[in-house]
Please model this.
Amino acid sequence: MGAIIEVKYFNSFVLRKTMTTEGQTKPVWNGSFGVPVSEGGYPHYPSTVAATESTYNWTIEEARIRGGYNNTNVDYGVKAYLVEEEPNASTRINTVIYSGIFNSRTGVNDTNVFSVGQDITKSADPANGSIQRLYAEDTNLIIFQENKISRALVNKDAIYAAEGGGTVTASNLTIGVIQPFPGRYGISKNPESFAVYGYDKYFTDENNNTVLKLSGGSIQEVSGFGMTDFFRDQLNNMNRVQGAGFAQGGWDIHNKQYVVSIYQNPLEFQNLLGETINGIFVPTLTPEGYTIDDPDKFKTLSFDSGVSGWTTFFSYKPDQILSLRDKLYTLKNGAVWQHYSEEVGSLRGNFYDVNTPSSIRFVLNQNATQSKTFKTISYEGSNGWQVDSIFSDATGEDQNGSIYQTSQDSAALIYSYTEGAYDAFNTVYPGIDVNGNPAALIQPLYYAGFNRKENKYTANLVNNSLPSQGEIIFGESISGIKGYYSTVTMSTDTVTNVGGEKELFSVSYNYSINSGF
Model:
């Protein structure tokens, strides 16, 4: 009759019966008095010899040393499974969890061990929203929630006296007490806006319509450096339809600036019917009263802490921003692009194989309380700059029929030195070529835009505005534009050294004070 043995232990010995020499019938037990094949042992392992009574090999798994009755039993060891009473997962948006330790010196790697028998969680105030990002800095763990920024000591704790003073002490706690930074600021739901350089951390707070800088123990609103209205509008217009609005941030190591790209949801209103394809919300039906806005509505700009101001707008919209050594890289549609490249063939103003002219906007506002006529404009720098537009300030509102409207003077486009050059009579003039030999050259006589005088580019302002109410002389009959101040936009042209370096050092202008004001 066979014997059935139930093995209920997790740590066991695997024993095997063998023969000393082929053909002999005396077995070698190797210290075990296990079960022979006649009593249910396992035969033919791993022998391929014909199955005879004298050549059986077998193995057995047992949990008692030497397999003897009532011998010392092996410990149960670690269970391979655990049945929980409540196996359903729970989501705790305000809690962090940590695993066991990792020690490369001793070979201990418990990073995949999360023991429920230990206190391995640390919770922040749930009233401040979910935790969006964690950043470890020396002995501190900085916790970014939607509406609060906090920090906690790592591998240390703080003991507070009755007077309120604190003393840092060594502790077996992995994460110490969570201490909030002053101010009700957070990172909203835009952890992608986070960037760090040195001890400065930059990020956006959509809920407060601000861009923030965390330095040391204080938080500063860098969006308040002349850009309060701008970020109020841009961040407020972001909405949280999946795959739509975001604020991508990064550190530009090349120029030592924080770069942020704010992308507004292309749908002017939320709650449109549609589906999400590859992370992008695609509307399938536009209900009555809902409109679709510009799908590429974004603003990318940089903040320079050296001048405490926002210095540049960019014409590119990156998917990610990162720096490596002294170079800035961005990711776009799965490709990596290097910025500020000085390699042969690199074009300035070219982002993602799209050429975009560089431009600058400024205000002419000398003697702000005086009404003036702006006559000329000049600049020092490279050839290739043109004036796209120049407008005076608007007048007060006048009634025109049933509506009220304002008026302002404007000047015509001023071409760059090269683009505006022409020869009205196609006259050939004697000249000298680059080698000093006489040559017949066709030289332009006129410039429709900027003319170069003593290495300074100058142009007249020609008024092209419509007549305003009560104005007697207007349009092409006058030169210059009238107003208290003028807003000028200059850009690089499309013909002069395309992709090359173009510098702009200073801009000046000539004006006269209007009489009777």
